[in-house]
Structure formats: C-alpha cells, structure tokens
Amino acid sequence: MEGEGEVSGFMRVFDGKRGRKQPKRKCVDFNSSSLTHLHARVLFRDYRDLQDLQPSLAHDKKLRPAYSCHENPASCVTTKLADTSVNKNNAYSHRCPVFAIAWTPEGRGLVAGNSQGEFTLWDGYEFNFLTIWQGHDQSVQSMTWSHNGEFMVSADKTGLIKYWMNNMNEVKKFQGHKDSIRSISFSPSDLKFVTGGDDCVLKIWDFETGAEERAITGHHWDVKCCHWHPYKPLILSGGKDHKVKLWDARTGSCLDTIHAHKNTVRACEWSSNGNWFFTGGRDQKVKLYDLRRTNEAVLTFNGHKNEVTSLALHPFYETLFVTGDYS
C-alpha cells in the first residue's frame, strides 16, 4: 500500500499552491489586420481586386484596418458587441449612470465620467479596468480632447471646468457657467474652445489663460449641444428651444436660425468636409443639413422609437455615423 505522500513509488511534491486555470480574456488585436493590408496593397491594383468582407469567421483572415476600406465603408460597421464593463465598487462609489465618455487620443483607453464625479479609465484592447479617480465633486456632464491630444477638458453639473493632461493630472480649474455644462468643443487651432450650458449661454474661452472671450446669447432655453466647425470660425449649437443656430465665433453674431426639430435638439455635429452637419432631437429624428442651403433638411432619418440623445460620425468616412437614443 502506498504512503500518503507517494504516488506509484514517487514522492509527491506539493508546495502549498494549487495551479489555477488562467482565465480567457477578450482582446482586440489590430496588428493582424494591418499586416494583411501591408501585404495586399502590393498585390492588388485597386478596389477592383479587393473582395468585400462577409459576416463569416472564414473572412477573419481578410480583415483590413478601417482606413483601407475606401471602396466599401460598410466593412467598418461593427455588428457584434465586444464587451460590457462595470465600475469597480470601492469605499465611496457604487454603480451609477455614466454621462460622458471619450477615447484617449491614441485609441488605447476609454475615459468615462459618471454621476458621482468619478473618471474611470478602461483598457481599449483587453477591456479591463485600469484606474478610477475623483475628478469632480458633482456629476460629469461633458468631456473632450484637444485636437493635438495633449489635454482633455471636462465640465460638471455646477458649471466647473477642468483641464487634464494626457497622463490624467489636473492642471487648471475655473467656474465657467452658472449651471450645468452640456457640451464642449475645441476650435481647429486648439487655442480656443466653446461651451454650452443650461444657463442658455454659449461661451468662448481662451484655452491657455482660461479667460472668457465672449458670451453668446440667443437661445431662449438650455443649450444642449455645440460643435466648432472643422476649419472655419463657425459654431453650431442646438437647444431646448427646438432651434439649431449658426454663430460667427469672431463676433458672436447669429448667422442663421433653423427650426430643425419639433422638440429639444440634443445632439449636433459637423462632418469632416465642413459642408454638412447632423442634428438629433427629442422628436426621435436625425437630420442632415447642407451649410450652403439650410432652408430644409437634405435627409431625415427615422427609426428611433425614443428621443435621440447622441450622435457621432466615423473618423474616416463621413458617410457613416451612429446615433443613440434614450432607450
């Protein structure tokens, strides 16, 4: 009969630690698609030799990066949920609504601001939690990165504005509005930025000094969204008064007023070419306008069954955009 410490005549060695099976983690790896593109571009003439991707695992090896799919932008549309992440509980936080999110400039991380004033940084490759810190004392309502990727500006429910470096160190804070700030947008040069809030005012700020350059009044109710033109001194805004307005950033004068929606305008954004802009409202509609002819919408998109709360254009293809609603 074998002893308790022996197995088939061999001494059992046990150091007190049992082996644990390594968990399988989801991961986004862009290297394989980039290598496929580098290999294929010297073999094919142009889009005529490239095959359209099909929703099948057999086409995974043919996947190419988004910037190389000019012949078929639909290949860049994501149709499968990659992951769902939830904040870690700690001594002073619990699960709460997230009101603002922004990808870091290099695309490796996602910053989320919640109703308790906390920022959470998530890994964009493996979807794991990286860090959490208290950024504001009140609910974070808006955040955006400068075009050069060096600074992030955030704002909260009390109208407080804060600057953050790309290493998430706070460098400046000041009171911007008397009420909640709903939207922030940088000028093309990053020297100025505009904010819109529930005090019915748009404000243009000097980024370096944090000084207010101009307060723009004209909306008769809360300003819910604003966006600076990609290369002109032109600001687009929408508000609770159902109106979309175009402003001259140099003088603060209103250039055009568009009665675009039958209810609150919740989202607005310029296309990268600067000739089109999109609006989304509480009337469950998304509209496309041409800057050169704003008397009527070029296209109206129906499909939402609840109020449209957000929209975003594809970074490479201006004909692709995504919208979200309250449901």
TrEMBL record:
Lineage: Eukaryota, Cryptophyceae, Pyrenomonadales, Geminigeraceae, Hanusia
Protein's UniProt keywords contain Repeat: yes
Superkingdom of the organism of origin: Eukaryota
Gene3D superfamilies registered for this protein in UniProt: YVTN repeat-like/Quinoprotein amine dehydrogenase
Alphabetical list of InterPro entries matching this protein: Pfs2-like, WD40/YVTN_repeat-like_dom_sf, WD40_PAC1, WD40_repeat_CS, WD40_repeat_dom_sf, WD40_rpt
A biological process term (GO) from this entry: mRNA 3'-end processing
WD repeats: 91-123, 133-164, 174-215, 216-257, 258-299
UniProt keyword terms in alphabetical order: Repeat, WD repeat
Protein name: Anaphase-promoting complex subunit 4 WD40 domain-containing protein
CDD domains tied to this protein: WD40
SUPFAM superfamilies given in the database record: WD40 repeat-like
GO CC, any one term: mRNA cleavage and polyadenylation specificity factor complex
Pfam families for the chain: WD40 (PF00400)
Coiled coil: none
